[in-house]
Amino acid sequence: MTAIIQTKNLTRIYQLDGEDINAVNAVTLDIPREKMTAIVGRSGSGKTTLLNLISGLDVPTNGEIWFDNDRLDTMSEQDKRLLRLNKIGFVFQSFGLLPLLDASENVGVPLRMRYMDQQERNSRVNEALDWVGLTQRVHHRPYELSGGEQQRVAIARALASRPQIIMADEPTGQLDTHTGYTIIALLRRLVNEQNITALIITHDPKVMQEADLVYHMSDGNLVESVWNTSNG
Ligand code: ADP
Ligand code: MG
């Protein structure tokens, strides 16, 4: 197994009202390449903090993060920004679409940030929206789309950048059960067909079934890791 991300003794302590909160406590783990990994645990167990550390959005108090064989936790802010732009696609619980832009414009935003020319951009946008099954919705704005469709636009936006890894924090948290399943199935297909790594934070049991590897967090600690050999 080759890992795209490795953490070693990763620790993040927050200080709040003079008290230390060990949000992430000495976590050592591997995120395997081209697999679906789920991080599960109750609210407050440190899942989002761990994801923020792994993506370079937050700085650890202690420990190491390796991303694609580069040491991430000591990189400059600029290098981390470029790494995120080029290698990571983000999907959020609340979709994170810009309300005044239609679906195709939303998908194009990260490509504009990379100064991609219009022709290449349009072709990537169309390809990604086609892949998530939204060719009929390209000119709809977020308020003209259902929650599930908005999340598919967000997945297309992540996909259009051709990232190495898609990181999703509670991607089904605002969706009904059935729609949530379709989003998880889409993320599963992404791993199987596009050879992208997926890292999904959730407390949705369906994600745990679909994932290849499940890490359980409790009070900032990594307490269990389970491989699902029947998937993938
Ligand atoms: P989860 O995503 O699993 O719900 P979080 O990573 O958001 O958990 O939070 C882990 C712990 O760290 C919680 O106790 C939370 O209250 C605390 N925490 C998170 N962010 C901050 C912050 N910016 N300042 C202080 N405490 C924080
Ligand atoms: Mg969280």
Characterization of the model:
The protein is α/β, with parallel strands linked by helices and 232 residues long. 35% of the residues lie in helices and 30% in strands. The protein contains seven helices and ten strands. The chain has helices at 47-54, 77-87, 103-113, 118-131, 147-160, 177-194, 205-210; strands at residues 3-16, 19-32, 36-40, 62-67, 70-71, 88-92, 165-169, 197-202, 213-218, 221-227. A six-stranded mixed β-sheet has the order 6-7-8-3-9-10, sandwiched between helices. A four-stranded antiparallel β-sheet has the order 2-1-4-5. Helix 4 (118-131) crosses helix 5. The longest helix is centred in the last third of the chain and has 18 residues, at 177-194. Magnesium ion (MG) is lined by residues 47-48.
Give the arrangement of secondary structure elements.
Elements (H helix, E strand, L loop, with lengths): L2 E14 L2 E14 L3 E5 L6 H8 L7 E6 L2 E2 L5 H11 E5 L10 H11 L4 H14 L15 H14 L4 E5 L7 H18 L2 E6 L2 H6 L2 E6 L2 E7 L5
Parallel strand pairs: 3-8, 3-9, 6-7, 7-8
Antiparallel strand pairs: 1-2, 1-4, 4-5, 9-10
The structure holds adenosine-5'-diphosphate and magnesium ion.
